[in-house]
Target: Sugar ABC transporter substrate-binding protein
Amino acid sequence: MKRRTILGASFLALAMSTVAMAQSLPPLEQKERYKVGFPQMESNNPWRIAETKSFVDTAETCNWDLITTDAGGSAAKQVADVDSMIAQGIDVLFLPPREEKPLIPAVKKAAAAGIPTFLVDRSVDPNNAKAGVDYVSFLGSDFIDQGRRVAEWTIENFEGDKAVVVQLEGTTGSSPANDRKKGFDDAIAKDSRFTIVASQTGDFARDKGRQVMETLLQAHPDVDVVYAHNDEMAIGAIQALELAGRKPGEDVLVVSIDGTRDALQAIIDGKMGVTVESSPFFGPLACETMKRYAAGEEIEPWVQVKDRIFTQENAAENVDDAY
Model:
């Protein structure tokens, strides 16, 4: 995390007609300052707080007049926030959609108003809204790959003959929850030692993750592996395991995604095995991509971020730079 930017992101161009893109997308005038909307979905965890800060910090260097809101975990409130930003005359919208389907009307309303929209860190249902038509591009990670990498690390590092696995899912209906589950489930199924006995949402929240883990432990006290869709739920699961007399890192393997400071410290302390990075520092990448678009460049439908993986081998050298 040697500087909180994702300017080194690699670009993944998906097959799509460039002519159709040019005809469908609203233009963005090159000018000195832009009024930019960033309707955050919630601020109840370090990841979201770090992402918002990244946009606020970038506003100073990218000449943005930034409007930010907090939907408090409500998709309906996030839609209303987008409506308000459209009414305020924003030039550009950077939207992290809380869920795949409820935010589609907001995306299409922004497009109808002639406002270029970039989806950030989460996407929407591709069957109902498409990059290059309804919005410019998705800036974010490959969530399926994140889940797959966690599963592959687990397969390689779990030493037992059989493993009872429980999964703490993210927000129901969100793209990272859907994709991180698919990536992990598909990969772990290739090793017959592993059986997923329960998969339940913890809504990406630490306390909810703890509560769900406490309930799952009553039904599955013999759990060997806990896979959490983010570090906050993983930390909550560790708390529940310890309260139940289990020893995370010794008799239970905890694996996760995000790369937060608390997760890296848990790895250093031997309580967590791995976390795959999912960086929240989108501000600089958003600025760079917006400027490219204003200059008339063709923007990839998916500006893909490459994520690192943190284990005992490198957690200590990265923890001080984590959020």
Notes: The chain is about 40% helix and 20% strand. The mean pLDDT is 94. The two ends are 9 Å apart (CA to CA). The CA atoms of residues 43 and 319 lie 22 Å apart.
